[in-house]
Amino acid sequence: MCRPTHPNALFFPAKMKYRRYPIYKSMPALFWALLQVLCAAAQTSLADSLARVLVTAPADTNRVNLLNEIAWEINETHTDQAAQHLQEAIALAQKLKFTKGEAAAWNRLGVVEENRGNYTAAQQNYQKALDLRNRLGDLGEIGATLNNIGVLLETTGHFDSALVYHRKNLEIQKERRDTVRMARAHFNIAGVCMEMGEYLETQKSLYDARGILEAFNDQDGVAKVTTLLGHIQLELDQYEEARALYEKALLMRQKLNDPVRLAEALSDYANALDELGSLDSSRVALRYYARALDLWKKLDDLQGQANILNNLADAHKHLGNYQIAFDYLRQSEKICLDLEYNEGLMECYNTMGDVYSRAGQQEKSLELIRRYYKIADEIDDQKFIQSAYKDFSEVYAKIGDYDKAYDYRVKYDELRYKRLNSKFVTSFVRNERLFADEKKQQQIEQQKSALELQEALLAKSRIGLFALLGGAAALLLLVALLFNRNRMRARRNRELDAKNKLIEQERQRSDELLLNILPAATAAELKTHATVKPVRYESVTVMFTDFKSFTKIAESVSPEELIAELDGCFRLFDNIVSEFNLEKIKTIGDSYMCAGGLPVANQTHPVDVVRAAIEMQCRLHALMQQKQAEGKRLFEMRIGIHTGPVVAGVVGSHKFAYDIWGDTVNTAARLEQGSEPTKINVSETTYQLVKDIFPCTYRGRLAAKNKGEIDMYFVEYDCGALIKTKC
Q1: Final residue of a structural domain among 245, 267, 295
Q2: Most buried residue, 174, 240, 261, 542, by most Cβ within 10 Å?
Q3: Is 595 helix (H, G, I), strand (E, B) or coil?
Q4: How do residues 194-207 score in pLDDT, each as one tens digit?
Q5: Residue 603 falls within a domain, yes or no?
Q6: Is the dihedral of CA 530, 533, 534, 539 positive or negative?
Q7: 414-445: burial string, b at 16+ Cβ within 10 Å, e else
Q8: CA pseudo-torsion sign 468, 470, 472, 478
Q9: How far apart are CA 567 and CA 190, in angstroms?
Q10: Is the peptide bond before 599 cis (omega within 30 degrees of 0)?
Q11: What are the backbone dihedrals phi and psi of residue 387, each rounded to the nearest 5 degrees, phi first?
């Protein structure tokens, strides 16, 4: 099975906000060793300098801070010495009643114990720091400790409790309006929810984080959010949705200088392609796996190599290349055995058993299933135990031993329902606890509000008593007079509300009709000023399409059938135009015209239009395959694209139409006429703008009607992989 980036690996940097961790070690061994020496030297130098100051430092609050700083500098390399400094800082701070310094020492002692693997002691120290910081009321420091406790609880598998602490931290950061720490708190919440299978909560937290990250133009953070959203779709078997998200993340990673994340992004994208289930997509996946494997080798990351080798074998299995799959699996097995990497080894044996089964060697398949079942049983991995039961059942059924197949199927069903029930009970208890906490907090707030209201009423009661008695008679008379008036007013208001609702419905309907005809900005201008001024755009990319031999097809079918076929194609194109932020201009018979870069100008319109053209050709091809199976007539489409200046505006006074004019439009039309079926013909101008993204073939200078000779290029594309890079 394919292995996506683990959410802990993805969000690990987000949890470093208040604590220091070693730098990621997936890099060449020599470079890593050198970097360790340099970092250790820098830390030792600073720690030595602080230690020299400490020798003569008096026993005051500055000494407490100095002890804390020295311990922080050496907490990863000299944990015993760091702990001694922190214990001294605690004792001195308590003597001086320096609560802030004591809290900092307890917090850092928690980090030291966590580095040692003493998680119980670490949590106790964090709690002492939190109690002191709560007394001081310093929200920033309280949030830091809440974050540390949440990360620790997540590390030890206590996801419910971790979620509570991360949410408390988030509320504090919201109160402080610290947007950066809010984003990282959302990251941590998403990581925990992902572990618990709470995908809706994960998605919500990621969207919240993404909004903040985009505002700060944090491309690395946005890429992480996009990747985890892809993981959710992959986990839910929404492979096409996962592929689209991984594609976006990959494009971002290619622009960032981070080979580790790029290798993960390549692997994630390949996983989604392989899961799509077609032979073409699996073949394309192999190329991305190969690029990821090269990066892991350069980084000298053996675990990353083992995972990719297993994924390569899985893709070759789908293609029926069993011997190649076995070669990759043996390489993966050797690495996993050398590293004692049990999870990777179980994945390897799981895939190897499936390959043997597909190759008709059921006895060997059983041997591999027994291997990974043994490992799973030893480490109590319920997921792989359940998978083994299922594999045993399927292989025994192929052998003809139906009694064993039935027994293992029963075991599989029992464990599956047990795990589902356990998950349900855990979720139920979690929700009950969260509901109880919320209800308790609501009751406290209600009681507080009631007490405040009661005090206010008692304060006012003495003043208002005499005024109330004096005004009672006048009030009774006023009520009698107003009763009849209010009744009449209520009736008129009901009639007016009914009319207003009818008017609003008609207004919405007219707005919707107008937006179906004109772009939103143009429609708004027309409603405001009753006219639309023509606008010149210096750079717009225009696309024309038409169908081969459409006139002959039209002569051989009924008008109703012809219109239905065209409607299906154009609806398909409308969806694609919307996806790529283009503007549909009009249709003329079997010709479809659209443009990018208007009515809102942008810099990406040449790439957007070419991507849309590829999508149109590919989706039309898929649609025509269905038509061919139904015995219907097939359409083949030509496409022409050109980039240049245009003038856009609205023509007509009764039946409005948004249109564009200029030599750019005429040139695009000539390029479409000079194209060929299933081809995308672009001009020299467009080619210069997209050549670094799409491979193109030069056609030479071809004659175009009324345009003389034009340099033309065919865009090369593969419907199995919509992203192409230049060779």
Answers
A1: 295
A2: 542
A3: strand
A4: 777 777 888 888 88
A5: yes
A6: negative
A7: ebeeeeeeeeeeeeeebeeeeeeeeeeeeeee
A8: negative
A9: 43
A10: yes
A11: -60, -40
For residues 60 and 97, what is the distance between their CA atoms, to the nearest angstrom?
A: 11
Q: Look at residue 234 in the predicted model and tell me its pLDDT.
A: 84
Instruction: Measure the N-to-C terminal CA separation of the chain; round to a whole number of Å.
Output: 31
CB 624 within 8 A of CB 609: no
| Number of domains composing the chain | 2
Residue 66 lies in a domain: no
In this structure, are residues 658 and 519 in contact, taking their beta carbons and an 8 Å threshold? yes
The amino acid that residue 161 corresponds to is S
Q: pLDDT value at position 576?
A: 93
Q: Cα-flanking dihedrals φ and ψ of residue 336, to 5°?
A: -65, -40
User: Which pLDDT belongs to residue 180?
Assistant: 81
- Residue found under tokens 């059921």: 362
**Between residues 526 and 427, which one has the greater pLDDT?**
526
Tokens at residue 574, please? 């409308």
Which of 253, 272, 295 is a domain's end point? 295
Question: Which is more confidently placed, 377 or 497?
Answer: 377
pLDDT the model gives residue 7: 41
Q: Is residue 253 part of a domain?
A: yes
**Residue 685 confidence class, pLDDT cut points 50, 70, 90:** very high
Indicate whether 279 belongs to any domain: yes
Residue with the bigger pLDDT between 529 and 47: it is 47
Measured between alpha carbons, how far is 262 from 250 in angstroms, rounded to an integer? 7
Neighbours of 539 (CB within 10 A): 19
Instruction: Using DSSP, state whether 682 is helix, strand or coil.
Output: strand
The pLDDT score that the predictor gives to residue 23 is: 26
Report phi then psi at 593, rounded to 5.
Answer: -125, 130
Q: What is the pLDDT of residues 568-610, one digit of tens each?
A: 888 999 999 999 999 998 888 889 999 999 888 899 999 999 9
Residue 653 neighbours by CB under 8 Å, 6+ apart: none
Name the H helices within 595-637.
Answer: 605-629
Query: In the block, which residue shows the tokens 């001009």?
Result: 683
The answer to whether residue 32 scores a pLDDT higher than 50 is: no
Q: How confident is the model at residue 20 (pLDDT cuts 50, 70, 90)?
A: very low
What is the span of the domain harbouring residue 690? Answer: 532-715
Q: How far is CA 625 from CA 622, 632, 717, in A?
A: 5, 10, 18
Mean pLDDT, the chain, whole residue set: 80
How far is Cα 713 from Cα 696, in angstroms, rounded to an integer? 6
CA nearest neighbour of 188 among 143, 245, 147, 217? 147
Q: What is the CA radius of gyration of the chain?
A: 34
Q: For residue 227, what is the domain's CATH number? A: 1.25.40.10
CB 724 within 8 A of CB 717: yes
**Long-range pairs for 579-585: beta carbons < 8 A, 24 or more residues apart:** 579/612, 579/615, 580/608, 580/609, 580/611, 580/612, 580/615, 581/608, 582/543, 582/608, 582/609, 582/612, 583/519, 583/658, 585/658, 585/659, 585/660
**pLDDT tens sequence across 447-463:** 655 556 666 655 555 55
Q: What is the pLDDT of residues 367-410, one digit of tens each?
A: 999 999 999 899 888 888 988 999 999 999 889 988 888 889 88
Q: 540 in helix, strand or coil?
A: strand
